[in-house]
Amino acid sequence: MTKKPAKIKVPLYSATDRDNLRWLWNRYLKQRSPWLLLVLVMILVQGVVYQQFLSITESGLRVIFDNGTARELGMVCLAVFFLFAVRGAMGYLVPRITVWVSNSAIFEMRRDLIEHMMDLDLAYFERTKPGEIIQRLVTQTQQLGHFIGLSTANALRDAVTVVIVSSYLIYKNPVLFTAAVLVLPFIIWVMNFVSTRVKQVQGEAEHALGDYMSGIEETVSGMRTVKISNQEKVEAARLEKGTGRIRDLATRVQLTQALVMPSIDLSSAFVYVLVIGGGGYMVLSPNFDMDGAGIITFLLGMVLVFDPARLLAQYLGILQAHVVLLDRVRSLFHEKPSITDAPGAVTTFDTGGDIALDQVRFSYSPEQPLFDGLSMTFKGAKVSAIVGATGSGKTTILSLLSRLYDVQGGQITIGGTAIDKVKLHALRGAFSVVAQDIVIFNNSIWENIRYVNPEATDADIWQAAENAEIADLIRARGDAPVGPKGAQLSGGQKQRIAIARAFLVDAPILLLDEATSALDQGTEARIKSALTRLTQGRTTIVVAHRLSSIADADSIYVLEAGALVEQGKHDDLLKKNGYYAQLYLAQKQSYAAS
Ligand SMILES: Nc1ncnc2c1ncn2[C@@H]1O[C@H](COP(=O)(O)OP(=O)(O)OP(=O)(O)O)[C@@H](O)[C@H]1O
Fold this sequence. Notes:
This protein is 64% helix and 10% strand. It is α/β, with parallel strands linked by helices and 594 residues long. It folds into three domains: 15-172, ABC transporter transmembrane region fold; 174-289; 355-593, Rossmann fold (3-Layer(aba) Sandwich), CATH 3.40.50.
């Protein structure tokens, strides 16, 4: 169940807001300023068209009231048509240009966000919810695009209309305009009150919809557990409760929305009564210079200014929300990667040399120290194994070698070169990894293997698949996709894909982290010879729980709570009768028992 987001109160246009808006302008909009200027000119033209329309209408009405000619009336009609044709053309071009400008700005923003995100440390992704990142890259940028594009162009057009038409009305009849304007804030208040109510209920409805969708996602993806534990009824009741909430809120939204039209009608009535009554009085009274044409035109002017004024008030209302949105999106750029290329980092180093950890200190959090001065050397072109109880730090050592995390003290060298003096791309390119968390895409097995080396020939891929004992499965399944996250494959089949990938990547250092743990002993034995071939000539580091699988390693390192407690060959370690021997015997007995 997701928590209701807390209401955030930020002062409008704080220093941060101004800085964010400046950033948005400088980075994504400034280079498009000629287009924006064109849009501004067209918006001004739209405003002037309304003023001209009012002025021509007034002349037209006088032609009618003062017995003018049909030709004069025809000219007025033509002028009105021309004016609206111009406004129509602008009305087509302005959204076209603004949508294009804002979409390309948002495309660039998303591209920058994606590139920035790719550079961030693994640690960032381990502490940030995927939903937050998705929101920034998908919905928040989308909303921002709409805001800097159409919403702002429309608001500008509305502002220009209000200013130009109001100025014209003030010029025509300042007294009547002032009286009408006194009512305007009240109308806007009524409108905003209704739209705020609608927004509130809408917000609750969206929240309920979000909960309902998360509920469906949880139930569907956990269907195996739901069925095994006979929870279908409970889950159905939970989802039905969700749909009930949505029904209630949707009804409330529609009932509140039903208030909009009557309140518009009622508030417009105030203005119309005021203009017709007040203006009519002015026409009848000899003290004012006002005629019928003037009063009708004035009324028309009020109608023209009314909607833009309301929309402008609404726009100002949502402005703050979008400034907050901008801050959220930009916050991803405030995250800085700490694992980067050092100045002067090299791209070539002796990838076949020894890998040495020298007095390495590392912990994921200060409260839980893991390595405090760990030293060990993995011989180049040999097979080394790391064993130890769960949580002793085996996988972490592999992560440190490829700089998924940086050591906090001491150093790691490969072939004598400190790994933080090697460009990240070159360093990581030296490793081929078969890890516990295998990423499988919803594609064919063939494509899943090819993923690690798109340039590989078909023959290479078949060879890798044969080596990893997965070729028969490829033949049987053909091009069929393997389901989201490889849901249609067994754990062992996924591991074989990972092993096939390792065969396909021709990297000098091989890291096998529980690479065969999900394989049955028969399959493990069958691919063992292939794995042995794979390790030849490569520096290989194997992490395994099943000690029998690493018995023939050139060197075995035994870890206990982040410290190296024993090191040697399998037979020597057994003879020593220490921690390794204990682990080995315990495993042997449990296998015998099972
Ligand atoms: N990303 C992480 N963030 C915080 N702590 C972590 C992270 N990864 C591992 N740890 C912690 O660090 C310690 C060592 O973990 P590591 O995965 O290296 O152990 P391991 O020996 O490989 O264990 P296993 O045999 O269970 O795979 C554990 O206590 C674990 O909880």
